[in-house]
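SUBJECT: A protein chain and its fold
Encoding: whole-number codes for local backbone shapes
Chain under study, with its fold:
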Amino acid sequence: MSPVRLIAIDIDGTLLDSKFQVSEPNLAALRRAHALGVEIALATGRRHSFALPVARLLGFEVAMISSNGAVTRQSDGTLFHRDPLPLGAALELVEHMTGFRRHLVITFDEEGEKPLLLETLETLNESIKRWLETNSQHIRVVTPIERGLTRDPIQAMYCGTVELMMAAEAQLMKNNALLTRITLLKTQYDARDLCMLDILNKGCTKGAALGRWASSRGYAPAEVMAIGDNYNDIEMLEFAGHPCIMGNATAELRGRGWPTTLDNNEDGVAAAVDAALEGLE
């Protein structure tokens, strides 16, 4: 196996514990990797500015793959790549999924007006109250939501209970023409009865973004490690020569035979990173 030169880490359910904190052992392991010349990247479903406080905890500049691969920036804000969802596809999505519009969040990039567009706060407040409170200053409520869709968004997200999002996914699968223009990614937390369906531009994933960044830095896939826990991490785990899943990973990931570290409440990232660093010192 080639030595690891780049480590890409998911945030929620991976780097963060169940209290949404980064443990000192995880921080120490990533700082040690950085000191040894290993590059760190964060790869998350969060938009860039919502992930930035986590990146700043590390104490050094990192690459940030945000919105499930739609935007790649360095933590100093320098833009590397943007892959928006075409406006036409977004409008078709809203029309086709009209029965789920109260569960919809549209995300724009970090420029100009407030980046989060919703039709109502009421329904989403039942499932992602903490997220809404944290992001309240970035939210626009427009009814109907189409009136706020005037340019290409970064992504669309439907959010709710697992059962409801299964119904939403089934509805989406009925539009074959739309499916040729988009990527559907899922993030699911069974213990919280919470599921998010992210709709992005065709071919847009964490894995595609990680491959693009690794290539620009001169890293082969065999030199890349990826650590994740959920469905939306599958493509980057498939890309990396050193995939590693968390002990709390979904059943879909656990069934793929990838190496498993401890869970996110047991400093699983630190354990995986420390193992990858053996022999580098």
